[in-house]
Structure formats: structure tokens, C-alpha cells
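Hello,

Our lab assistant flagged a job as stuck in the queue for most of the afternoon. It eventually completed. Since we weren't sure the result was trustworthy after the delay, we are filing this so someone can double-check. Below is the sequence as submitted and the structure that was eventually returned. Let us know if re-running is recommended.
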Amino acid sequence: MLLAWISSFVAVDYAFGVDALCCGFFVDYDGEEDSKISDANRRILDYYVNRNFKEVVFNPKEKSLVSFFLQLSRYLQQSIGTVAAIDFNAYANSLGIKIDQKI
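-- returned structure --
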């Protein structure tokens, strides 16, 4: 999801060049990982196959850069723990944008 999310920020306009970070968005899904499945590969596959599409959340164009930064920081924080324990959702809410609540 992260790669699709990042790659969607770059749009080529042949008349005006590259328009990077044109809009910030994320795709929201319903579903939970089944921790009772002991095989990690099967558990991950089961999660991705059984999750349900909920919505695509778009942020305003003028706030796309900060939206991108907060979303990327949130993904890094939740997936590999490389970002300090900061409440990125509080920052996003104060700016009037939405970022993915969970990974």
C-alpha cells in the first residue's frame, strides 16, 4: 500500500513538466489480522485476501506535502519503529487533514 501511495503523488503533465505531490490520500480498509494463525505467510495472505475496501480519503491539494510527510512518518513509526513516539494523528487533526489511523 505504501508504494502505491507514494507513486501516486507524481503526475507527468507534458505541457508543464512534473507535478509532484499533487494530492495526498490513502486507501482505508476494514479487516483485522488473525493472530491465531501461526504461519506468518498464511496469516499475511489471509489478511490481504479477506480485507474489505472502505474508502479512499483525499486531503486538500495545498496540504499535500505535510500530508505526505505525516503519513510516511506514521508508516515508518508503526512498521519498523524508526520514528519517535509522536502522535502524528494529533498533528494531522490540527491541520484539518486525515492520515491512516493504523497499518
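-- support follow-up --
The delay was a queue issue, not a problem with the job. The result is valid. Residues 2-95 form one domain. Residues 29 and 43 are 17 Å apart (CA to CA).
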